[in-house]
């Protein structure tokens, strides 16, 4: 038995050695005191998906063992997983990191010559999509090679560069996926694509905790993963950043150059796409040729949208690099060209990780000079721009304004206070609450992306959105100034605004509904069983000898109607002011100077929302996550997320609000649809977004109408004999889509859904072709597109003229005692549509 055990151990060791050799043989010799990932984890890389905590444990162990490595935490996920960066360089560099950082910044920002040759700053980023795990495993092998190898080339890497390895940008999603494939892994492994291992359950591992795509969040910076990374990024400005992904199993491997940028005038310098990309592509092709892996370039993907991990660095003088590896979606999967193994996908990512470092180190001077010239040229480009700066501001919703300013600062944009009241093109900006962003600054290209809007594009097919002007996401009034605007103090940070605590009242308190966080304040009142009503008409009261106006939507808390003591209610009003920044006014009577009185029949009691959201297979995880995140993180409103396969167990009488996002909902047959319709008629509310609005109309739950293809004019319909070139199909069909653009709608400000809005026209975000006709009920069209609706982004002329302009953005259809609220657009796009 002992003999057998020894032989079995040697067999495992031999297998382990072969497995490790598959990845690292050409980079030896290795320091034997440094454990490989395999020896630390206890299994060959590629035979099991590594949990994130084990990844962090391994990297931490390397940093403890070697003076060539260190590890830092830059944030924490919603799931309480640490976000780490693992640094590798020669000990002399690691010991002087702060000095190197300061000299690097001084050189690229000020042109100050360093005291000695500076190392390159590299950021190797992996696994932003949780179910694209080959990059995460490759990060461990890359770290091992950079720390333990004595190969002369690796010695050169350590001496001439600092590599910051981000092993998994999306730990929550990675662990969701890793658990799935490990849980369903067979022994022997099953390569059948239909096996459960290769088909994740909803919502799958691509997204973060709230089901958001973090590879779109570099620009929007909503989540802790992105905000932490951006803070680190703007403290270092790396020369090269990698973005490792996976794609369809039947593909090969993609590296840059990408498809040409869709913008007619891209904001990134042409040298980025040309000289830098072409230089690095030579290294990437050589590396893939050496191991016999197939690859392609230039056909797909684009860097038009500024918020990818491979495009944001391009706007910071660095080189962002996208890699896409065919995915095994498990441990081994059958494809037409043979079995695709997890180990094979990992090796390709590893090879390109090393090739990136090699290319960077061998072209260090070009990269450093390029970044220096990038920032040096920016203020000059700004001075040449006819626009000297952008002025923006409003006073009625400071929380929304603060969120926008915070976003600008996070992106390194210089923001200044406005020194005097100003009027530009009919828009008045008050010095109190308005700001100026000059164009002549180092982040000029970011400023362009924040404020400039576009209608002309070189391409009509985009990998993602075609509009991203952040100022419109927040619905902030702004104007481009063609003359110099005096700059006040520079804004260094956004601090919580201190509002005076409300006076005590024995009669009533009023809360302004214009404040962004007023719904959060209302929810807290409901949580404490406080009775709240809302004003459905405006009014004014005399307060402290001065007449003060209150708009529709104002919340009224009548002191004598509450079960709690007046002193306790007052303490709660103080907490609402400090916790949410809402404006609370104490009043000592209900007789108005104008408009309705506080006891009017137009003061309507509000019911605490009890919300259920349908989720699961056939439902858009992105949109469901956006609803969940909004209610959860912003408004502290609990929401029940119900899987569709549990619908029959749902007692709808326990809820008053049902939310449905885009999806096909095949599970909801006629009897289940009747269950929903009957529940609405009893006085409840169904809210639908985009595809779900299309669904409720086509299924007859409401009597509204969708514009269909046959609604086109006769001379616009394709004829039977019309033919188009097959190889142009993607381009021509792409023109009919609305991948993401911003349009203007006109609001009915008297409608309860519009309470709190100050402007009759606001921007909305459209990324669908759900065209709702205005309601035949004259009071049901809450938001309709304006006569000149285009703000930013691509839309075909036929879609604009024949579908968008005549259509409605928001309808409310009465059904018995209840209602169906239908959004054609996405009111909470990527958790960033504050406006």
Radius of gyration, in angstroms, nearest whole number: 29 Å
| DSSP, total strands | 33
User: Which structural class do the helices and strands define?
Assistant: alpha+beta
Low-pLDDT sequence parts: 1-18
**Biggest pleated sheet:** 9 strands, mixed
Q: Sum up the overall morphology in one term.
A: globular
Number of helical regions: 23
The average pLDDT is 93
Helix content: 25-40%
- Spatial order of strands in the largest sheet: 26-25-27-28-33-32-31-29-30
The first-to-last residue Cα distance is 73 Å
Strand content: 15-25%
Structure, explained:
This protein is α+β, with helices and mostly antiparallel strands and 835 residues long. 33% of the residues lie in helices and 20% in strands. It is built from 23 helices and 33 strands. The strands form 7 sheets. The protein has a 9-stranded mixed beta sheet with strand order 26-25-27-28-33-32-31-29-30, sandwiched between helices. A 7-stranded mixed beta sheet has the order 1-2-4-3-5-7-6, with helices on both faces. A hairpin with a 5-residue loop joins β1 and β2. α6 packs across α12. The longest helix has 23 residues. The protein starts with a helix and ends in a 12-residue tail after the last strand. The N terminus is likely disordered.
Short description:
The protein has 835 residues and is α+β, with helices and mostly antiparallel strands.
Descriptors:
single chain; 835 residues; alpha+beta; seven-stranded mixed β-sheet; 20% strand; globular; disordered N terminus
Any chance you could write out the topology, listing elements then pairs?
Blueprint: H1 2-24, H2 37-41, H3 52-65, E1 69-76, E2 82-88, H4 91-94, H5 97-110, E3 120-126, H6 134-148, H7 152-160, E4 161-166, H8 171-183, H9 217-220, H10 224-236, E5 240-247, E6 253-255, H11 270-291, E7 319-326, E8 332-335, E9 338-341, H12 342-362, H13 364-384, E10 389-393, H14 398-410, E11 416-418, E12 422-424, E13 427-429, E14 434-438, H15 444-451, H16 470-473, E15 478-481, E16 487-490, E17 508-511, H17 518-527, E18 533-535, E19 539-543, E20 546-550, E21 555-558, H18 566-580, E22 584-587, E23 594-595, E24 603-605, E25 611-615, H19 621-634, E26 639-643, E27 657-660, H20 670-681, E28 685-689, H21 691-698, H22 729-734, E29 741-747, E30 761-766, E31 781-792, H23 797-804, E32 808-815, E33 818-823
Parallel strand pairs: 3-4, 3-5, 5-7, 25-26, 25-27, 27-28, 28-33
Antiparallel strand pairs: 1-2, 2-4, 6-7, 8-9, 10-14, 10-15, 11-14, 11-16, 12-13, 17-21, 17-22, 18-21, 18-24, 19-20, 19-23, 29-30, 29-31, 31-32, 32-33
Helix pairs in contact: 3-6, 5-13, 6-12, 11-12, 17-18
């Amino acid at each position: 038995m002992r003999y057998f055990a020894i032989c079995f151990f040697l067999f495992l060791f031999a297998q382990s050695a072969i497995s490790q050799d598959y990845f690292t043989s050409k980079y030896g010799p290795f320091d034997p005191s440094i454990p490989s990932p395999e020896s630390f984890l206890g299994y060959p890389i590629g035979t099991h998906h590594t949990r994130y905590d084990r990844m962090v444990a391994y990297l931490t162990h390397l940093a403890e063992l070697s003076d060539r490595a260190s590890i830092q935490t830059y944030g924490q996920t919603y799931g309480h997983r640490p976000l780490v960066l693992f640094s590798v360089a020669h000990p002399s560099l690691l010991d002087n990191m702060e000095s190197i950082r300061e000299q690097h910044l001084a050189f690229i920002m000020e042109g100050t010559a360093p005291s000695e040759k500076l190392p390159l700053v590299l950021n190797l980023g992996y696994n932003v999509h949780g179910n694209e795990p080959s990059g995460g495993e490759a990060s461990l092998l890359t770290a091992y090679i950079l720390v333990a190898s004595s190969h002369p080339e690796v010695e050169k890497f350590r001496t001439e560069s600092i590599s910051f390895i981000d092993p998994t940008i999306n730990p929550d999603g990675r662990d969701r996926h890793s658990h799935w494939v490990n849980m369903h892994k067979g022994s022997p492994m099953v390569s059948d694509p239909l096996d459960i291992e290769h088909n994740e359950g909803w919502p799958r591992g691509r997204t973060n905790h709230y089901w958001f795509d973090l590879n779109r969040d570099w620009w929007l910076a909503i989540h802790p993963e992105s905000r932490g990374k951006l803070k680190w990024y703007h403290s270092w400005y790396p020369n090269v950043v990698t973005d490792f992904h996976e794609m369809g199993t039947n593909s090969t491997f993609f590296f840059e150059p990408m498809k040409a940028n869709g913008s007619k005038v891209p904001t990134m310098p042409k040298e980025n796409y040309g000289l830098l990309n072409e230089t690095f592509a030579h290294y990437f092709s050589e590396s893939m040729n050496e191991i016999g892996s197939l690859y392609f370039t230039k056909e797909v993907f684009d860097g038009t949208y500024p918020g990818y991990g491979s495009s944001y660095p391009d706007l910071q003088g660095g080189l962002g690099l996208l890699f896409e590896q065919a995915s095994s979606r498990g441990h081994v999967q059958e494809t037409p060209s043979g079995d695709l193994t997890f180990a094979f996908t990992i090796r390709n990512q590893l090879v390109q990780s090393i090739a990136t470092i090699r290319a960077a180190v061998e072209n260090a001077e070009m990269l450093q000079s390029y970044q220096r010239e990038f920032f040096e040229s920016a203020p000059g480009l700004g001075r040449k721009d006819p626009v000297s700066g952008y002025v923006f501001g409003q006073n009625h919703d400071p929380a929304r304004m603060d969120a926008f300013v915070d976003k600008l600062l996070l992106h390194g944009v210089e923001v200044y206070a406005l020194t005097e009241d100003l009027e530009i093109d009919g828009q008045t900006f008050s010095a109190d609450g308005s700001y100026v962003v000059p164009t002549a600054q180092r982040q000029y290209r970011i400023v362009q992306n924040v404020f400039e809007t576009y209608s002309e594009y070189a391409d009509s097919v985009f990998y993602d959105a075609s509009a991203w002007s952040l100022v419109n996401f927040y619905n902030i009034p702004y104007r481009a100034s063609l003359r110099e605007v005096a700059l006040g103090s520079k804004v260094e940070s956004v601090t919580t605004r201190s509002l005076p605590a409300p006076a005590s009242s024995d009669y009533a308190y009023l809360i302004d509904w214009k404040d962004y966080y007023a719904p959060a304040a209302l929810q807290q009142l409901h949580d404490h069983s406080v009775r709240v009503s809302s004003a459905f008409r405006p009014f004014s009261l005399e307060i402290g000898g001065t007449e003060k106006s209150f708009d529709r939507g104002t919340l009224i808390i009548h002191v004598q109607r509450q079960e709690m003591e007046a002193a306790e209610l007052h303490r709660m009003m103080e907490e609402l002011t400090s916790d949410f920044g809402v404006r609370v006014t104490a009043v000592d009577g209900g007789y108005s100077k104008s408009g309705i009185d506080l006891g009017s029949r137009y003061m309507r009691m509000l019911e605490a929302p009890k919300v259920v959201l349908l989720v699961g297979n056939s439902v858009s995880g992105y949109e469901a996550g956006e609803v969940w995140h909004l209610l959860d993180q912003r408004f502290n409103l609990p929401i029940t997320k119900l899987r569709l396969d549990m619908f029959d167990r749902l007692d709808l009488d326990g809820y008053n609000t049902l939310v449905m996002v885009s999806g096909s909902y095949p599970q909801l047959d006629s009897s289940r649809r009747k269950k929903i319709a009957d529940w609405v008629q009893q006085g409840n509310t169904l809210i639908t977004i985009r595809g779900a609005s299309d669904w409720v109309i086509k299924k007859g739950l409401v009597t509204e109408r969708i514009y269909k293809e046959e609604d086109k004019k006769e001379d616009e319909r394709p004829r039977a004999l019309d033919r188009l070139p097959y190889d142009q199909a993607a381009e021509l069909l792409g023109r009919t889509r609305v991948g993401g653009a911003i349009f203007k709608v006109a609001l009915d400000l008297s409608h309860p859904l519009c309470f709190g809005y100050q402007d009759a026209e606001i921007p909305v975000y459209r990324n669908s072709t759900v065209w709702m006709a205005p309601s035949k009920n004259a009071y049901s069209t809450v938001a309709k597109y304006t006569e000149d609706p285009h703000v930013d982004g691509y839309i075909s002329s036929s879609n604009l003229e024949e579908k968008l302009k005549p259509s409605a953005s928001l309808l409310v259809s009465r059904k018995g005692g209840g209602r169906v609220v239908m959004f054609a657009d996405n009111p909470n796009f990527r958790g960033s549509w504050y406006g």
